Amino acid sequence: MFSKILIANRGEIAVRVINECKRLGIKTVAICSDIDRNALHMQIADEGYCIGAAHAKESYLNIEAIINAAIITKSEAIHPGYGFLSENPGFAKACEQNGITFIGPSSDAIRQLGEKVAAKKVAVSQNIPVLEGMIVSNIEDALLQANEMGYPVMLKIGDGGGGAGMKVLFSDSELKNTFGMLQTSENEALIVERYVTMARHIEIQIIGDKHGNILPLRNRECSIQLNNKKVVEECPANNLSEETLNNLYSASLKLAKTVNYVGAGTVEFLVDEFENYYFLEMNARIQVEHGITEMITGLNLVQWQIKIAAGEKIPFTQDYIRFSGHALECRINALSCGRIGNWYFDVNEARFDHSLAKGITVPPHYDSLLGKLISYGQTRIETINKMRGYLDELQIVGVETNIDLHKNILNSNSFLSGKYFTNSLYKEGLFKGDEK
Predict the structure, then answer these.
(1) Can you tell me the distance from the alpha carbon of 296 to that of 31, in angstroms, rounded to the nearest whole number?
(2) 10, 200, 285, 331: the active-site residue
(3) Which pLDDT score, from 0 to 100, does residue 326 have?
(4) N or C: the chain end with fewer CB closer than 10 Å?
């Protein structure tokens, strides 16, 4: 096992990894930008280093600075968390070249699966259904493809994640306006893809070790979204046939085995109203919503990431895992920047993964996620009722949050019925334009 790990991230995931390292007896090194010096992850780590300015390119995306920090602190491994450099093959390669263990898949696996275009090619090679679409580098080709498929279409950048760089378009004029906004020197090629109007976002959690073992760990429903960003997730998904679920598990394993996948990962699919399914992308890292899978399996995925990276073999099979109950996650996001005056949440049975501390600053430079509130029960309605109580108890002073949005979602007809799609929040008018 490692004796010291550097966490190349911030916020609640950095806090979570640090706490799990402590439970495994591993010393931790936190990094930060100059605006994050008083952040919670810096307060609880054994060591902390400021590696650059507030702009992510100068700090959390600065590969050279992070590698240097790992070398200076004699860290044996780096945990990338999610976002930032977690799916950057160049970062994984830099770790490999410097004798530092990257806690995640190999740089080659990330190169094949962590980028949308490359991942689709792998899926096609394995006869896994994908949405109709093509890569385009100019507006003329984009318009031609959109008109051949018919509107609406989805336009997105090939290396986007977390809903970034994605836009649903309904006309040539919208496509022309959006194309120029998304196409930059870094994103010269874009993807025009058929848009599924009545779509569900279903994902399969997998975990694989260095000994060739790869297991699916049930499924998650992530269809409650705003601006293509997940807001509420639940596990397991509702109203899906066993045949469809088995097809999704099979496709996920096939994809992962093709690249000898190691570590935790998530294979994402769109499923339409008739249960036709299409491979969307793979997140070659730990996922934000992994906690709800942990609740129904009893597995600690972050600890298993670390153990697998250290060479441990997964000692259990699919039959060993006891899937039990229902779990629900509400992403608590800040809707404004500022200083946390105070916060309160005192429900022992609840799980709240967060990075909150009195006096810390919520800056404008990074993702707005403050924490993940998770409820668990034996039935879906029990889990929802618990979450309603948790949301009433949670108080955050100093910044505006989306807590009220979550309360509205949990009382909406579509959510309560368990029959909802990625556009349900828009159809029910459950949000204000500034909510994330």
Answers:
(1) 32
(2) 285
(3) 98
(4) N
Question: pLDDT tens digits, residue range 179-226?
Answer: 888 887 566 678 899 999 899 999 999 999 999 999 999 999 999 999
Quote the tokens at residue 63.
């590969």
- pLDDT of 434 strictly over 50: no
The residues facing 136 across adjacent strands are: 190
Domains and their CATH numbers in the chain: 4-103 (3.40.50.20), 132-194 (3.30.1490.20), 199-428 (3.30.470.20)
Q: How many residues does the chain have?
A: 436
**Tell me, what amino acid is at 30?**
A
pLDDT more than 70, % of the chain? 96
200 is an active site residue? no
- Output the CA torsion 43→45→50→56 (10° steps): -90
Residue 223 · residue 201 · CB < 8 Å = yes
Does the predicted model carry a pTM greater than 0.85?
yes
In this predicted model, what pLDDT tens digit does every residue of 55-81 receive, in sequence order?
999 999 999 999 999 999 999 999 999
